[in-house]
Amino acid sequence: MKNVALTVSLALALITFGWIAVRIWRTSSLAHPGKVLVTGYCNCEKCCGWKRLPDGSTVYTYGKMKGKPKKVGVTSRGKVAGYGTIAADLKHYPYGTRLNVPGYGVGIVEDIGGAIKGHHIDVWFPTHEEAKRWGAKWLKVDPM
Ligand SMILES: [Zn+2]
């Protein structure tokens, strides 16, 4: 009887492990060769990690810049964010890189983000709704 219990728990452990492995695989760039994960963002506090202090000023809420003044709607490169602004990992796509993002259009890398690392870029939308509607897509993004 002990062996049966052991076999069952081993099988369950293997199934769980397999399920986790598949989930990790699906969200990794290895499962999407030649593609990047494209997510949407806007200027809001949720997307950009800032908060308004009682005196009306705005500061970063996390990361290296935590507590430092944050200009809402201004990219890390000091430009006003607008349609076509892209946040990227500068090791992959340096500032000024023009990218053709299917379904979005041509944008320019002008920003960075705490969660934007490796094969992951963020495309700017004027509202949080639109950013959410875009969601997260694996796309073939061509530098131009
Ligand atoms: Zn937002």
The CATH architecture of the largest domain is Beta Barrel
Which of globular, elongated, flat, extended, rod-shaped describes the shape? extended
Return residue spans where pLDDT drops below 50 for at least 5 consecutive residues: none
Distance between the termini: 65 Å
CATH homologous superfamily annotation of the largest domain = RlpA-like domain
N to C succession of SSEs: HEHEEEEEEHEE
CATH class of the largest domain: Mainly Beta
Class by helix and strand content? alpha+beta
Count of DSSP H/I helices: 3
Kindly provide the radius of gyration, computed on alpha-carbon positions and rounded to a whole number of angstroms. 20 Å
Strand order of the largest sheet: 8-1-7-4-6-5-9
User: Percent helix among the residues?
Assistant: 25-40%
- Topology-level CATH name of the largest domain: Barwin-like endoglucanases
Let me know the largest β-sheet.
Answer: 7 strands, mixed
Throw out a few tags for this protein.
alpha+beta; 3 helices; Barwin-like endoglucanases; 144 residues; extended; 2 domains; binds zinc ion
Verbal overview:
With 144 residues, the protein is α+β, with helices and mostly antiparallel strands. Helices cover 26% and strands 26% of the residues. The strands form two sheets. The chain has a seven-stranded mixed sheet with strand order 8-1-7-4-6-5-9. The chain has a two-stranded antiparallel ribbon with strand order 2-3. A hairpin with a 5-residue loop joins strand 2 and strand 3. It binds zinc ion. Zinc ion binds next to helix 2 and helix 3.
Topology of this structure?
Blueprint: H1 2-27, E1 36-41, H2 45-48, E2 50-52, E3 58-60, E4 85-87, E5 98-101, E6 105-111, E7 120-124, H3 128-134, E8 136-139, E9 142-143
Parallel strand pairs: 1-7, 4-6
Antiparallel strand pairs: 1-8, 2-3, 4-7, 5-6, 5-9
The structure holds zinc ion (ZN).
Zinc ion is lined by residues 41-42, 44, 46-47, 128, 131.
